[in-house]
Amino acid sequence: MRKRKFIYVAILTSSILFICYAHALDLPKRFLFNKENALEEWQEKVFKNKVMYTVQSEEEALLAKSEEGCSGLFYRIGFSPKEFPMISWQWQVVEFPEKAAGETGPFDEKTGWIERDDYAARVYVIFPSLNFSKTRCIEYIWDENLPEGTVMTSPYFKNIKLIVAESGRGNMEKWVLEEYNIYEDYIKVFGEAPRRNVGAIALMTDTDNTLSTAEALYKNIKVGYKNE
Amino acid sequence: MNKKNIRRRKQFYANKMHKDIFTIIFIASVVPATIVAVCLYYLIFYITAEQIAIPEAIAYSLIPAAKKVIKIVMFAAPISVLIILMSARSITHKIIGPFDRIVRDLDECVKGKKQGHLTLRKGDRFQPLVDRINKLLDRLR
Asked: What is the pTM assigned to this prediction?
């Protein structure tokens, strides 16, 4: 009787542990864009107009072309940002969104920032919550004007923090490698350690606010690995 | 109808049975409403947020809608609960009050302290029952 009880407890415990750590079996997750059907695992989410995302299998890259559009590619992936804090990717900007002279100056949250909330390339790390208004998000952006390392709050929502990962035209049309520690960045931008797991990552090139065009490439995205 | 008959009760609960019935009515109205509200939240907002997915899009379209809904709920829910409470109090008093009164008056009749008819307050339920009891009392006397 005691032995049977022990077996039940062991099965239950191992099931719970398996459920909790099953996500870790797929980690680290790499996105190589080396096949024509590489986008099948991504979901396209359209905010305003559609952005053209096409796989360039020879270059193993994803090309994003936006003409007054705003749609992103979304991939659900769950992992602990404390255990697997690293994310890396390569990106290249071919064309920046055209921001008017007044929209490229110093950052000012009060005056019409939504009009300049377009970036040639963004990588999202999303921390979803059951209460969707408590969902938090870090966006790594490549902006033409803002200095690298700038941290901003999105004009749309206080729980969206933007980090300028790359700045200016200096590296335009060149592949730039980025690697970030999500856990540390979360603490830096939100002032506390993440209480929730990462639930998704997303990519976006958008020009819906500036009503212009932009073009960027992404490749070799790797998420959910330890800092070595 | 004399003054005594139209006197209103000052106690919120007439007795324990009144409290029990009142509590059941309150729970029966508030608990299902809360369950429905939670289910609707999940169905409408959570699933919509899952589908929209892009945080800016959620913030732009869904959060303002949710805020409006919360404002309406915050305004309407207390009023609805208050109306339910007041209605429940009024209805239960009209049922429990006369029940107590009939039992008390019948006890007095049995002891010989009360000679007249049983009377109820205006608007109380059980008037047909009291009429028949009074007829029975007349026949017994």
From this structure: 0.76
